[in-house]
Amino acid sequence: MKTCIIIIVLLYTKLKIKKMLLRKKKGQMQMMETIGVLFIFFILVVFGMIFYFKYQQISFQEKQEELVATRAMDSTLIALFLPELQCSRSGAEAEDNCIDISKLEGLNSVMSKYSNEYYFNIFSYSRIYVEMVYPTNYNWVVYDHEKTKINDAGDEVPDWEFKEPTFFVVTLRDEMNFFGDLTGHDSTYGFGYLVVEVYS
Amino acid sequence: MTDIFKNRGKNGQMTMTFNWIYVLIAGGIILLFFVGLVVKQKASSEQKLSYDITRILESIITAATVSEQTKNFIDTSGLVDYTINFDCEIDGGSFKNIFSGYGLDTTSATVETPIEAIFAPKKVSAPEIVVWSLPYELPFKVIDLLMLTSSNTKYYVLADPSSTDSFLTELQNITDDLNFEFVESFDEMEVGSNYHIRIVDFDYLPVFDTITDGGPIPPLLEELSEDQVSAVSFMADGTVNYYYREENDFQIENVWGAIHIFSLDPEERDAAKYGTIFAGGADEYMCNMMKAFKRLEIVSDVYLDKFEQLKEYYTENGVHDLANQDCRIFLEGDNSVENLHAEAKTCVSDVAGYLSAGCTNIEGAAILVKELNENLYNNNCVTLY
């Protein structure tokens, strides 16, 4: 009888241990499953984030380029109609797309003088120059404000990623024989183009 | 055995309840995350929209400024829910202290305009904006002054219909496509569907109803709020006064004295005079004129350089050529351009200078430059401007 009870107790204990082991295995399996789900979830989140940031980066860059292009257009428009450059004839309306050479000659120094307090508010970081192609090749820098920074070596280096140039054909009016001094023959009108380079 | 089953049942119930709580918390967090994302996205897209609007407005204003004498009607029907604020303040006195810009109300999207002279109402909320650029000449072209108004800003011009004032006649002809109405009395002024009413008083004598400091506002305009009614009154001596509404009376805005209009040719489209009609108030007018004077300082510097070149040119070429000698005589000893440059410099140095008699010398200096140019033109010389 005693032996019988011991056998029954032993069998019951064995069964319990077996069940416990099985339950433990099942728990481990569930744990692995949860870890797996979490792992995939986080991978998806990371993928989503990478995709989102990449998209944001591209759209930001596109927006920046769009803004620079708009700024270049606006700057060109303003530069073309500057009273400081335009050909005028007393009270009459100014000649369209015409630049007065005599004004252009001294404009760079005036623009430099008022660059920080005035013209920077209009043209910001940009370079404006006039290239004459007829009667001879010549150029005048009107405004030059390049975006720069000081590097570790203490040198001033350019600090812009891209440059948006716009070109506009203009006539150049010379009333004081400037062309004659350059080419040897008189001519009241020449032509060339106005270049506005915007830095970003 | 019964105890074991009982415990196991309790355990199962516990697990089930725990699972549901877990699902609820996790679901709630996920829901909150998406709600936050939507709110954030909404705020950011609204901000983006306001920045886009101001950027487009900036391009429109730039293009309108350079298209001289042209009125541009801009459809802003998509913006009727927004109010565009125009501001120009001289905080401290000189050109350097100007704070100027425009932007959408209740958003941070603003465009600074330290250079552009924009004469506009303080607030615009309309389905259509009108921009009109007029060149300011003193005596050469200095800057394009931009008049900006809206389809629902009404201008009541109080004037004697028998007046022979050439500016009034021009105003009547030129504003027929704008929201202008010429009236003789306050009783003719109605609110209608307008957002702002500006009374422009040309009745110098006065023959009819007129705007006075402490005087009543037109009775039919009483239903409007205080910032929706304003007035500008032209004096017989060529100065102007601005008025704002306080309760049911008009109060003078420029308590420091009447504002002088600096212009040379009142017969032709007088940009500075038109500016007084469209400017939001006295401060805004002076602030924008200060920008014009700063530009005058610079442009006169360019002409100063051209003047020296002309002098040099005629000195070199006037030795053998009699015609050139005449041109040289006009230029020699003339310091009108230099004076004009100095006057402009004085005007922008201090707002008090703008108001004082000191700045009014600018007109005299400009007349001398005009005379010099006319002499050069009439003698077939190269002109200054």
What brief labels describe this structure?
heterodimer, A: 200 residues, alpha+beta, six-stranded mixed beta sheet, two-stranded antiparallel ribbon, 8 strands, 28% strand, B: 385 residues, alpha/beta, seven-stranded mixed beta sheet, four-stranded mixed beta sheet, 8 helices, 15 strands, 44% helix
Question: Could you please describe the fold and organization of this structure?
Answer:
The complex is a heterodimer of chains A (about 200) and B (about 375). With about 200 residues, chain A is an alpha+beta fold. Chain A has a domain at about 75-200. In chain A, about 55% of the residues lie in helices and about 30% in strands. In chain A, strand 1 (about 85-90) and strand 2 form a beta hairpin. With about 375 residues, chain B is α/β, with parallel strands linked by helices.
The residue-averaged pLDDT of chain A reads 88
Give the overall average pLDDT of chain B.
Answer: 88
> How many β-strand runs of chain A?
8
- Label the structural class of chain B: alpha/beta
What's the short version?
Chain A has 200 residues and is an alpha+beta fold. Chain A has four helices and eight strands. Chain B starts with a helix and ends in a 7-residue tail after the last helix.
Q: What is the topology?
A:
The complex is a heterodimer of chains A (200) and B (385).
Chain A: H1 2-80, E1 86-89, E2 92-100, H2 101-113, H3 115-123, E3 126-134, E4 138-144, E5 148-150, E6 156-158, E7 163-173, H4 178-183, E8 189-199
Parallel strand pairs in A: 2-7
Antiparallel strand pairs in A: 1-2, 3-4, 3-8, 5-6, 7-8
Chain B: H1 2-66, E1 71-75, E2 84-90, E3 98-104, E4 110-112, E5 118-119, E6 123-124, E7 128-137, E8 141-150, E9 153-158, H2 166-174, E10 180-183, E11 196-201, E12 229-234, E13 239-246, E14 249-252, E15 259-260, H3 271-278, H4 282-317, H5 322-331, H6 336-349, H7 351-355, H8 357-378
